[in-house]
Amino acid sequence: MERRHQVFSVDLLERYATKGRGAITCMATGNDVIVLGTSKGWVIRHDFGVGDSYDIDLSVGRPGEQSVHKVFVDPGGSHCIATVIGSSGADTYYTHAKWTKPRILSKLKGLVVNAVAWNRQHITEASTREIIMGTDNGQLYEMAVDVKDKMEKYVKLLFELKELPEAFTGLQMETASVHNGTRFYVMAVTPTRLYSFTGIGSLEAVFASYVDRTVHFMELPGEIPNSELHFFIKQRRAVHFAWLSGAGIYHGDLKFGVQHSSPNGDENFVENKALLDYSKFSEGVEGVKPSSLAVSEFHFLLLIGNKVKVVNRISEQIVEELYFDQTPDAVSRGIFGLCSDASAGLFYAYDQNSIFQVSVNDEGRDMWKVYLDLKEYAAALANCRDALQRDQVYLVQAEAAFAAKEFLRAASFYAKINYVLSFEEISLKFISIGEQDALRTFLLRKLDNLSKDEKCQITMISTWATELYLDKINRLLLEDDSALDSNNTEYQSLIKEFRAFLSDCKDVLDEATTMKLLESYGRVDELVFFASLKEQYEIVLHHYIQQGEAKKALQVLQKPNVSMELQYKFAPDLIMLDAYETVESWMTTKSLNPRKLIPAMMRYSSEPHAKNETHEVIKYLEYCVHRLQNEDPGVHNLLLSLYAKKEDESALLRFLECKVGKGQPGGPEFFYDPKYALRLCLKEKRMRACVHIYSMMSMHEEAVALALQVDPELAMAEADKVEDDEDLRKKLWLMIAKHVIEQEKGTKRENIRKAIAFLKETDGLLKIEDILPFFPDFALIDDFKEAICSSLEDYNEQIEKLKQEMNDATRGADNIRNDISALAQRYTVIDWDEQCGVCRRKILNVGGDYRMTRGYMAVGPMAPFYVFPCGHAFHAQCLIAHVTRCTNQAQAEYILDLQKQLTLLCAESKNVSNGGLSEEPLVSVTPMHKIRSQLDDAVASDCPFCGDLMIQEISLPFIPPEEAEESESWEIKPHNHPSQRSLSLAV
């Protein structure tokens, strides 16, 4: 195998690593730190992380030759423990990475430490925490060292082998946090046994518990130069172990923190145990035992002689051999040992003076092949790096299943292949052997593995799978006539599976093609199911209606995404199938327009129904009218027509009397067509309803005439409805009276008596003389004597009342004439200094500014004037000017016109004198006096200061528009002068 393809490679790290301090006797690594022990008692530390190196002499003060027996480094490379053996015995030292001098662990005096277990989860740079040390006399000690103390905190004896005292040669420890503390897992090996310890609490408590219970161990007899125990660490956790024993390599997986049924023993944390016999990788008859061991994730590195054989842990086959570039003097002694650096992921080998580095280059790249050869398919898939590798794993599984005639299983594996075999090749495999079920399984699994972007492939495969399903269903029906029975589980499960497939693939299947397939195979139920999935509800409804399953159809219509038009389209068929359920569905459906359901309701209503049967259409229409407050005239007319066809007229009358529309302000009382209602009621001979409609249309005469044919009492009630028209009311009552008199068939005297009783019911509206013409001419007056006398008495009372009213009116007229006469003689006394209310001049004096007002009667030298009962007095000219100015424009023009006419008439008059009294009488009817009277009424009807004119002036502004300019001249405007200064005063 070429080097570039090798997983493991060897490089010389340092040729003379001991710097002349002796030969290498032991080595330990951790976190890129290498610590060497030499034959002269020196510890040499190489820190490749920081590029530093120093050595410590542990033989100082010790007589004779000293040699470092074992050296140990923690995974972090900070703490180091070394055991030195010399002629004076054994001593154990501790040193820290930052120390230049070691510290002897005096409590371990005389003990040879062969193995150390570090607490990897809790160790820190400043403290070792709990560590376990195994000695060559079969004892385990617990110790802890804090850097600040520079000495061990304590040393405790944990365990001692008494049954078979052997030296502990390997020791490992792991911890896991559990709900009630920390669980310790400890493994220790001797040349022939592997011991397992576990427990919760402290190390001392864990080992103390084994006083009362048996220690679990695995014994593998055989001799080996050096028994070793190694843990492989991945992500700071041990995942598997290996024990280099005399019988072989005992290894297995580690599961920490898992509760097992066994309270003790390695069953608590060891799984998948196996023993690798040395004979499997030895050329000779007898296996050659390795001298050292290192463990990687998938391989064992076995040091045999001067080379390292790399054995795959899973396949137990040698995959590589590593050779070292040793110096000639070191070849004879060979490689001493191997060690691993879990933190750096490196392995090291050493001889007497050189250090070799073993690097790992992607050791898991071919593990999928290893697992595949072992038929561990799950592990093979877990280690695949790309799709092509996974395809090869699936192909092997598929072909194995195909060869074993497990075709369904093979189909599942074939469906996962994307590159190794084409879709067509795999399909032909199943078609050639006639395995339709396996082919269908392959297609279904292939659909699961396709991406959403491969739409064409998904659609075609789904359609093919649909046809295979249909073919399988038909074959089941042909093979077994009883397949349709509910007891046939295979058929029923296949139908269920097919419907689930349609539900999953409804969005990728071509709608038209799929429906055509279902129809061609006669699968009506599945066709309806698929149509429902695709929301083709019209097809679904057609099917249910043809099958007479109205409830299922109504359930479909109740779905939220069903078009409302389908409600109207299938309403006639549904109401004929199940009227009750259909109407109940209508009443629970929102946004339903009852007008569009009228054809369906009329179809239902045209069918004969039993007398006691609930008319579902009437029930629905009543719901629309009374509950939904529907105002559609068509709905109201239909309900009215259905009421009219019922023999019982009470429902019709209640509907006509119900004021449906009065819920809205200003709305009509009804929404049906009254003319249509009248025609319908006349046709169905619902006379009481006709009377109500006539009355509602204010056709009271027709209402009373029709009511007289049905019931006179009804006619009387209709006549009483007319209240605002007394003549019409009397006319209606006369019609009733005539009908009553003409319909009476008793004796004449009895008829007259009933007629007179009828007059009393009219509450005085009709008199005996009103109904006399309705009696025959040969009726005797004696029969009406009492009624006529009563009527005459009423007339006499009315005449007396009229006389009294006439007398009262005569007296009132006389009083009015007397008042008029007294008014003409009325006078008022004016003081000599009384002033005019307008000009403020004296009323009785004439100034130069006043001329005699034309048309007025002059009294000496005084000007005409007006005096009001309130005491105010005005010159005639001043009053006219004031009223004209204060009244509205129309009234002012009227006054000026009268004054102009009066002036013209005065100019023509020849009887006017300058200061004397007029010769015409005080009361005159000449045109001038008529005009003057009109002028008096216009200007002097009431006092301008006390009457309506003054009240109207309240709303006028104080400053009239014509005085606006004068008002503005009085306004105080600011005048800023340059010399003036404004001062702001604090308030």
UniProtKB/TrEMBL annotation:
One of its GO terms (biological process) is vacuole organization. Residues 865-952 form the Pep3/Vps18 RING C-terminal domain. Residues 977-987 have a biased composition (Polar residues). Residues 785-819 form a coiled coil. InterPro entries: CHCR, Clathrin_H-chain/VPS_repeat, Pep3/Vps18_beta-prop, Pep3/Vps18_RING_C. Belongs to the VPS18 family. This is Vacuolar protein sorting-associated protein 18 homolog. The lineage of its organism: Eukaryota, Viridiplantae, Streptophyta, Embryophyta, Tracheophyta.
